[in-house]
Amino acid sequence: MSASERSSSLTHLARLGFTSLSDADALLGEVEASTGVPRDSMTSGAQLAADADEALSALARIARRDADAVRRLHADEQGWRALWALLGASTGFADFFHRNPAELSELAGAGVTLPSSFELRDTLLDAVGAEDGFAEDGGEEAWVALRVRYRRMLARIAAFDLLSASPVDHVPSVAARLADAAAAALEASLAVARTRVSGGAAGAGLFPRAQVARAKLAIIGMGKTGARELNYVSDVDVIFVAGTDEGAAEELSESRVVDIATRLAVQTMRGISGIEIEPPLWEVDANLRPEGKQGALVRTLDSHLAYYERWAKSWEFQALLKARAIAGDLALGEAYVAAVQPKVWTSAARENFVDSVQRMRERVTEHIPAAEVAHQIKLGPGGIRDIEFTVQLLQLVHGLSDDRIRQRGTLEALDALVAEGYIGRNEASAFARDYRVLRLLEHRVQLRNLRRTHLMPSRPEELRVLARVTGLADTGDGVWELWESVKREVRDIHVRLFYRPLLSAVAALPAEERALSAEQAHDRLAAIGFADPAGALRHIAALTSGLRRKAAIQRHLMPVMIRWFAEGVDPDYGLLAFRRLSERLGDTPWFLRMLRDSSAAAESLTRVLSGSRYIGELMEWIPESAAWLDDDELLRPRTGVALQQEARAIQARHGSVEDAMRSVRALRRRELLRTAMAAVIGTITIEEVADALTTITDVTIQATLRAIRPTIVPPEDDDLDFSVIGMGRFGGRELGFGSDADVMYVYRANSVDPQRAHELAVKLVAALRTHSEDHRVPLDLDADLRPEGRNGPIARSLDAYAEYYRRWSLSWEAQALLRARGVAGSVKLIGSFMELADQVRYPATVDQQGLREIKRIKARVESERLPQGADPARHLKLGPGSLSDVEWLVQLLQLERAHEVEGMRTTSTLDALKAAQQAGVIAAVPAARLTEAWRLASRLRSANTLLSGQTSDILPVDRKRLDGIGRLLGYPPRSATQVEEDYLGTTRRARRVFEKLFYG
Length: 1000
Fold this sequence. Notes:
5-stranded mixed sheet, 45 helices, 10 strands, elongated
């Protein structure tokens, strides 16, 4: 061959898809020499090979083994095309034909049609010489013959798949034939097993042939096998069922039948999966049986049903959705399927069913090795499992009462769900298209080596081959980009459908066209977590009935909002609160617009309503607050200056104290609601919550004092100074939801008669308490921390305080002053009181006897102040390692060291603790443990109030309520145990620090 001819030949090879041109040229010459097939004729099908170089290399290997077999197949044009396609797509088939070159002749005419299920079964039974259920021979040669014949038929299926003009459209039919081939292989292997068991083959046992013939064994296909949507190489999930006819029951005991059937099952599995000269076909996986790997391999039908009746978990019913009798005694198998189907379609009514299915999908994703997540076609986010779990959940929930959607196959189920109105046509169409694409990718990566894998290749050359063999893209980069876009779309639809409500299509349909009865809707609402589905139905009807624009928008939104409510802590209350809110707002344009246009705001609304009765009750009276959810800035707590300006403006507008205070109370409720919503949504921290609640209380007390003073103190007594001092957590700016406001009252008579000044001060205190009362959100001004406690005067003059602290002050009163902070009234008087307080709370000389007394009081508080019957470990305020432990320890350190450490002279617990650490008073680790305990107890305490709308200092025992508190703190659903363990562990560590540093 001249140089120009050789160059032209190589160019021709490049056009055919070869890349190693010199090697290809040499191999073509070699095959031409051994087979006599001209190279031009030989390469007539090369363009069909996804990897032409790999195909030619395999062809050369086969020709070295049996050149005549290659030459004979070349005479069949269709068979030759099929061979190039198979060898270019699969090194697994290349190895098969290399081991068995005589099988090439069976490719004649392949690729035009798919073999039928009857042809597959007959062909594989013929391979083992089966007659009346027994194979001609029970030796290992029968297994080898079965495996060779199976791969022959698999090659014909693959040839059709690879040569089709649009393989993505043929995915369902190809997957169905793969499942039929697996069923046929199991049937043939069972025939060999019967012969082995009745013939005494090694390890198979020895039973009379008549008994083996009368012992029934049904093989139930599960998963993709049962649904007839199998892969090329996949575990075949099965369940074995034993039985016998009534006539044989007298001769064969149940235990004997199960023994025979178990041996048949073992040998059947071995025939498919055992190590022989011809490699195993695939793994036969029986782990979906009752009790999994720990359970009996074979059970009778009654034993199966007894297990499912009493012990089965939700996921087991989901697995049974696709069950189908595929081999063995089909009548027994169909009886099994018929018996379990009612249990499958009532499983959604089980408690926490939807949660368990959703969590199972999440666990699948969590267990993917990190290095595989980006390449997982099947299990990863946006993969096949997202589609399958979504469809199955919708089927199981809606199929509870609608038998029209009880389909085994994923695509058939999607069609049924669309036809019955449970999902939209666009979503179903996208899901179906993406499912076919993902399954085609999965098929092709498995064909490559005829091995079980679900990973997208990463090497560029492998991606290039995948692009060609799927026909989905022209380049490797193109097929990867397509896959990424499919994943994104699948994940988006999955998230929307997998967590969507059960009444998805019903709420949007006019009443006369609804496909569901009230009973069906009732069952479905119960399945997703509504405790009172009948009440929920009434609320839905009230919201969606009518022809007005509001009802139309609500009908459109209700499916999604029901799903969001169902994801919340208390779906029933959330829906009720939403109905009340909607009725209050009526046809308000901004509300309808927000619901329609802002899914984030609508979802946040369902979250706060289903998560907090505190919020729900306030929103009913302040419905315009819903608008804040559409703007994060509106959820930010307002500054003290802004609130003061508004409060002053309120008082300027109103002539009477009652009117002014009514508006001030409304201001307070509104800002408490704003803070609560921000806390639940998670836009502010616990420190910001405490600061905001303190600021709101400050402004309320200041406004109240401004309003009442002119009505109590006449102009001639205006020289009277009066102030409110914040104490405790209020003084420390550490209020939580439901916290009391600890205060003390101080006055200075100046030119006013002392007795008159005292009387006026007491009247001011009474008026403050009266006009600050709020029956909706109580504000308790608690003065029990004043000198002498409840036995002391409610208000004292500054001089009286000075005299008392000089002569009679107890250690706990000095301790209480550590949190003292001026809140309202005369600024000068506050300054004077703070000077006095500093002398008492930051002493130059530490009173050791006083410190010992504080320690004694702390011990007494722990034993006496706990509510009767309360578990100390669960008390968020007084329990070991909780708020009081941290605060008392910090206050002890302040009494000892604040005189010399300026940073510790603060009313804030955490600020004082941080300053103590920085000064070396306390080590970093103990300080961190105390801080963690204080923050967690504070968050739990506020969350407890937000959840129930009632103040409580006890960490609840009720799991549902504890889970609700956890959700408010950002824990995932079903975290009650984790919340409890976190709190108890955190406080145990803090308590050890406290005991060491407080008691020494």
